[in-house]
Every structure is written in C-alpha cells, then in structure tokens.
Amino acid sequence: MLRSARATNRGRRHSRPRERFIASGGASVGAGAALLVFELDAQRFGLPLTRAARIIQAVSVTPLPGAPAIVLGVVDIAGAVLPVIDMRRRFGRAPRAIQLSDQLVLADTGRRPVALLVDAATAVVDAPAEDLAAGDALLPGLGLVDGALMLADGLVLISDLDRLLSLDEEAALDGAMAAAASDAPEDPQG
To answer: Is-above-0.90 flag for pTM?
Structure first.
C-alpha cells in the first residue's frame, strides 16, 4: 500500500490511489519529475512515474519456457499478456518465492509493457534537480541505474527502464512470447 507523508519543498510525497498510476509517456527523469519509489529488501529504487501505468498485488505467474532468467513468466492483465520481470534478480538481490505482500508495477520499458515484481511500491516523490545525481557521477558502469535521488530519509536509486533488458534478453523474450502464442489453443468463440 502506498504511504503518504507531509509535503515539503524537497522530496515531496504525494498520496495516490493504490491502483491508479496512469502513464503519459516519457523516458528519463528530468528536473521536477515525479518518481514511483519501490523497495527490494531494504533498498529503495525509483522509476519515472510517467513510465508506470498502475500497481497491483502480485498474482500467480505462468511460466514462460525459453524466457531469459530474469523473466519469471507471464501474467494476463485485462487481456494483455505481460512478461513479469524479477527485479530482485535484475538488481542482484537474493531470489525468493513470490509473497502475498509483493506487488507488480505495470510499466513501459520503451520497447514493451512489462510487470515488474517488487517487494512493495511505497511512495510517489518529486525529484527536484538539486537532489538528483547522474548514475555515472555516482559510480561509472551502473548500467541499470540512471541516477539517484537524495531524500531526507535516504537514497533512492533511479532505475533505467530503457536498459532493463539487454538486447539478447529482448530477443530471447520475443522468441519465447512468440512460441507461447503459437502454442496457445485457439479461442473456440473467436
């Protein structure tokens, strides 16, 4: 469940309905942009709010043979089949089974819609320019981190959704999704 806090000029948090993040496009975090903050273990990560469509409770995931290791499988959300990305694995965290408290962030990587499995989506915060640091300025070679946001209560690493999947992973996922679609039984009513 999303938590809200007192609004301040820097790192202001917004209260939002639990399943109502509506995307409007956009690729990277700019000055004054809003971030959706999520947690993996005790580490906080963020992604541009414009890239998040909504947040739902984790559901059962259907395995996807041939998919890259970071893809747990697929879920059907309102008729759209989305790959589920294991954000714990993507960021080098210890793997674990999906828990009832986990959430799926439905997001757009720029190439495809995905469901990001996270421990919890916790807040929406403003990202004022003076509190942002570029990823390369923090530590060169942080390919999956676009930057960081300093808040009064700690650091939020900003995930680069454009680089979430490597080209090889994209190709493997495309192949696995195509194979699964061709193996699916036809709808007798369609």
So the answer is: no
Residue 7 lies in a domain: no
Total structural domains within the chain? 1
Going residue by residue through the chain (190 aa), what tens digit of pLDDT does each one get? 333 332 333 343 333 333 323 233 333 455 568 899 999 998 899 999 999 999 999 999 999 999 999 999 999 999 999 999 999 999 888 888 999 999 999 999 989 999 999 999 999 988 777 777 776 665 555 567 777 788 888 888 888 888 888 899 999 999 999 998 887 666 556 5
27 Cβ partners below 8 Å, 6+ apart?
48, 51, 110, 161, 162
CATH code where residue 164 lies: 2.40.50.180
Residue 2 lies in a domain: no
